[in-house]
Amino acid sequence: MSWIVCQLLYSKIQSVMNYRFLVVNIVFYFACGGLQLLRFMIHVQMDIGYQYVRFYTTLLTCVLCFVLSFTLIYIVVNEMKPNHNPINFEFETYVHDSSTWYSRVTFFWLVPLLRLGYNTPLELENLGQLPAREKSSVQYEKFRALYNAKKSENKPVSLWRCYLEGYWGSFVLGGILKLCGDCVGVVAPVGISVVVQYVQDPPVKYSRIDAVTVSEFLSNGYVMAVIVFISSIAQGSFSQASTHILNV
């Protein structure tokens, strides 16, 4: 529910650049994280260990809630700045730099253009103008400054070293995202084999009502089908994010 509210606030946040709307989400995520942490401690006291699914789901939910809380705090503290150069949305559709962190990760800022393309065929003028920061002249001046700085040291200049010093952050982040996408891609082949095995063999019915173990959970064909579906979406998301970081 909080994620949906955050998505609905995107248009308001992007227009006024007032991230105080996310304070409610910060409080909500902190409260959820605290409750999940308390629940996790209760599970440990009840000897619900790492062999049970409930152990991992509670721990993962707790970690995600706190991660989202600190992410929103980062947005409020570091990105709550007045927009002295507002983007003219009538002529520019690439609004990545002026979008919120969530919008950048999920490519939510691209939804208006996709909605327009869904209703009518896109034309060249619909793409608008390229922001000054993304133009090749700006990147050229940045690389030229690095090159001249190295050249002034009276040492042989390595273009690769200039590339690394200027764009190492993008290379590292893009590589990590690409690695995550490749790792997630392994889930589908393994999961399909589990689904086929589940269809061929009759499912085992458990009479007990206690917590489900990890092996029982992952051997269920329906569960594995959902995991394969989520992994496919995650693989595409990681791949698109990596491509955007490395190529844009």
From TrEMBL:
<keyword id="KW-0547">Nucleotide-binding</keyword>
<dbReference type="InterPro" id="IPR050173">
    <property type="entry name" value="ABC_transporter_C-like"/>
</dbReference>
<dbReference type="GO" id="GO:0005524">
    <property type="term" value="F:ATP binding"/>
</dbReference>
<keyword id="KW-0472">Membrane</keyword>
<feature type="transmembrane region" description="Helical">
    <location>
        <begin position="54"/>
        <end position="77"/>
    </location>
</feature>
<keyword id="KW-1133">Transmembrane helix</keyword>
<feature type="transmembrane region" description="Helical">
    <location>
        <begin position="21"/>
        <end position="42"/>
    </location>
</feature>
<protein>
    <submittedName>
        <fullName>ATP-binding cassette sub-family C member Sur</fullName>
    </submittedName>
</protein>
<dbReference type="GO" id="GO:0042626">
    <property type="term" value="F:ATPase-coupled transmembrane transporter activity"/>
</dbReference>
<keyword id="KW-0067">ATP-binding</keyword>
<dbReference type="GO" id="GO:0016020">
    <property type="term" value="C:membrane"/>
</dbReference>
<keyword id="KW-0812">Transmembrane</keyword>
<dbReference type="InterPro" id="IPR036640">
    <property type="entry name" value="ABC1_TM_sf"/>
</dbReference>
